[in-house]
Design goal:
By secondary structure, the chain is an all-alpha fold. The chain folds into two domains: 86 residues, no CATH class; 73 residues. The protein is built from seven helices and no strands.
């Protein structure tokens, strides 16, 4: 992809890069013809910077692609600039070792941010019990510990989020129980030493 040419207009279609896997924009207008935003151009420049730093691009290639990235109007034009560069894993499942993807691979640069997993409800309860341990002088330590263990088991099975909340509830709950046990032990010792 050493001889990338500027596009004739905002609606111009980039040619297939040499050695790259990108299809001409006319075959996939839903993706390639979409208008690019400033953040899309910035992400493309980040991929180019990384490729230059790793020695995949010469200074001249980097400079030419950098200029074209700032002029690009569509996703197709931006994708052409990074089609022969690693920019993340290929999205979408492949049905076999020699399967051909149905469409062009979408560079990870242009993928929407991944959605975070939903937090486990029992983990949230453990966090709340843990936070309430302090004003209640540790009376909610046992519920915090129980819900913390339940949440961690559920999270392992369902791969939900909230492991940190469950851990917080467990730690504060155990500290609260230890404090209550120590206070009870001191009270019993005091009662036994003063008959």
């Amino acid at each position: 992809m050493g001889d990338v040419q500027p596009w004739p207009s905002a609606g111009g279609r980039p040619d297939r890069p040499q050695g790259g896997g990108w299809q001409p924009a006319g075959q996939h207008p839903g993706y390639a013809a979409m208008r690019a935003a400033h953040t899309d151009r910035d992400r493309t420049v980040d991929v180019l910077k990384a490729a230059y730093a790793e020695g995949r691009l010469s200074a001249d290639e980097y400079s030419a692609r950098f200029d074209l990235a700032n002029q690009a109007q569509t996703y197709g034009q931006l994708a052409q600039l990074v089609a022969d560069l690693p920019s993340g894993p290929m999205p979408g499942p492949m049905s076999g070792p020699s399967a051909v993807p149905l469409g062009p691979p979408v560079p990870a640069t242009f993928l929407p941010p991944t959605r975070q997993a939903r937090n486990n409800g029992v983990a949230i309860a453990s966090l709340v019990f843990g936070l309430l341990c302090v004003p209640s002088f540790g009376a909610l330590g046992l519920p915090a510990v129980i819900t913390g263990h339940m949440a961690r088991q559920q999270i392992r099975r369902s791969e939900e989020g909230g492991d940190g909340m469950a851990t917080f509830g467990l730690v504060v709950g155990y500290l609260s129980l230890a404090g209550w046990s120590l206070a009870l032990f001191v009270a019993v010792l005091g009662a036994l030493s003063h008959p």
